[in-house]
Specification:
The protein is mainly beta. Helix content is about 10%, strand content about 35%. It has a five-stranded antiparallel sheet, with no helix packed on it. The protein has a four-stranded antiparallel sheet with strand order 2-29-28-27, with no helix packed on it.
């Protein structure tokens, strides 16, 4: 037997092993939403529209210029969803819902993207954070607007702690802002929030996060590269627990025990069209939660993804004893040199589900993407109203789930594509279930984190160019909700 013949069985075994390994990798790639041989996640299967729908055209999520020319866009697009109410005006980044002790149902939403860019529109519809009585869902009634300094420009920091009945925000803008923290009591009467305190302790402002027990409010300034934890156990006397400089975090969300923080990590080098290190950063904030003196914050893991843009926020939830986050990227380019990348060539990060059961080893499970966000569709859609901007267009911005334990549904504001509803029954293979989009003449501008009213099968969201919408799920999509499980996180 020759040497080559003696090696043949070993070679055959190696080939078999390699084939098996490749097959396994292809299976994993398919589970993650990657098409075979491709380097980009596939689009999520589109919704099957039932009676009463006014569906989109060939490309999922697209409002083509021809629809504006023909008048079709003015009718809007809906699939397994219908409008219950609409308050015209402007909108910003958050829509929040709360029911007070007397049973009044309220919605809060910020009315500006970046103050004072919407000042002319707001002069007609109102400034600040709008307070709406939605006890009658079909007849929303504005009871007041919050026009204190922070509420005129909370940027992306407006958040509500449901158990404590505290509405919080920091004065901020697209870069940083002064970071003045304001806390409002909404538990007594959600229709008339009462200012509890105002402090400069937040340092700088942009985005934020609540600990689940409501004792800690976290603030990230993004461009200002500051990260601050504030003790709000006594909301009348907030104080700094921890402060760090030199980190560029966006949205901040926490585990159920408040000891693990999921930070949308933008990265510190802003010079490029993409940002090195952008993705999800998981932090151990147990020392802050325990109120230890001189608390230390440890980085447990950094996770990146090749199709990323600008990480916005990672919303935690659980399923069958495992921990996940629904992470969403905003826009299509990043950095100070985004103008060097043509919009049609820019990557849309969209959204993804990440398993964080082991916080030191997070892994992407699946993706939430629209057909119009795929590379092949970008060039063809660039002439659509609003599609040519790198800071909007057919990209994502915020997602939410109706409750933290076992949600089977998610809602995402995907800017030019409006409100998108996803079926999360199979976390590895999510599907689109419904959508609602009412574009203006300049295109849709759905930036806001959606809010849920589970019992009434409603989703609230705002469009920056047309105001607040209450949307009811129909045609069986409402069955993905579980009545009585509470409000949005």
């Amino acid at each position: 037997m020759s040497v080559s013949e003696s090696r043949a069985p070993a070679v055959r075994q190696l080939v078999v092993a390699l084939v098996a390994t490749i097959a396994t990798l292809l299976t994993v790639a398919t589970d993650l939403g990657f098409a075979e041989g491709a380097s980009f996640p596939s689009a999520t299967p589109r919704a099957q529209c039932g009676p009463g729908s006014l569906p989109e055209g060939k490309v999922q999520g697209r409002v083509p210029a021809a629809d504006y020319d023909s008048g079709r866009a003015a009718r809007g697009y809906r699939c397994n969803a219908r409008q219950v109410a609409h308050r015209p005006g402007t909108g910003g980044y958050k829509v929040l819902r709360y029911t007070d002790r007397a049973g009044h149902r309220c919605v809060y939403y910020d009315s500006t993207r970046t103050f004072p860019t919407d000042v002319f529109e707001q002069a007609q519809s109102g400034f600040g954070v709008v307070v709406v009585d939605v006890t009658r869902a079909d007849r929303p009634r504005v009871t007041t607007t919050l026009t204190t300094p922070t509420m005129l420009s909370p940027h992306e920091s407006l958040l509500l702690h449901h158990r404590r009945g505290l509405l919080a925000a920091v004065l901020g803008n697209a870069y940083a802002g002064p970071g003045v923290l304001e806390l409002y009591d909404v538990r007594t009467d959600c229709r008339r929030p009462r200012l509890v305190s105002r402090t400069t302790e937040a340092v700088l402002g942009h985005e934020s996060g609540w600990s689940p027990d409501g004792r800690t409010f976290y603030v990230a300034s993004s461009g200002g590269q500051t990260f601050v934890a504030l003790d709000v156990s006594d909301p009348a006397r907030p104080s700094i627990l921890f402060s760090q400089r030199g980190v560029n975090y966006h949205g901040l969300r926490l585990s159920d025990d408040g000891r693990t923080l999921y930070a949308a990590h933008i990265g510190n080098d802003l010079s490029g069209a993409t940002l090195p290190g952008e993705g999800l950063r998981i932090l151990d904030v147990g020392d802050i939660q325990d109120r230890r003196p001189d608390p230390q914050v440890e980085v447990l893991a950094d996770l990146t993804w090749r199709e990323g843009s600008i990480p916005q926020v990672a919303q935690p939830f659980t399923r069958d004893g495992r921990d996940y986050v629904l992470e969403v990227d905003e826009f299509s380019t990043a950095g100070l040199n985004h103008g060097s990348v043509k919009p049609q060539d820019a990557t849309v990060g969209a959204a993804r589900i990440i398993d964080v059961t082991d916080p030191r080893r997070p892994s992407v499970v699946s993706h939430l993407r629209l057909g119009v966000q795929q590379p092949a569709a970008r060039a063809a859609s660039i002439g659509d109203p609003g599609a040519g901007t790198p800071l909007g267009g057919y990209t994502a911005h915020y997602c939410s789930v109706p409750y933290r334990e076992g949600p089977r549904i998610a809602a995402c504001s995907m800017i030019g594509s409006g409100l998108r509803i996803f079926d999360l029954t199979d976390l590895r293979r999510p599907r689109e279930a419904a959508y609602f989009n009412m574009p203006s003449s300049d295109g849709a501008a759905a930036f806001s984190q959606p809010a849920w009213d589970v019992r009434r099968r409603l989703v609230y969201y705002s469009d920056a160019s047309s105001g607040l919408y209450a949307v009811r799920l129909t045609n069986g999509v409402e069955d993905l909700l579980r009545p009585g499980r509470g409000d949005a996180p």
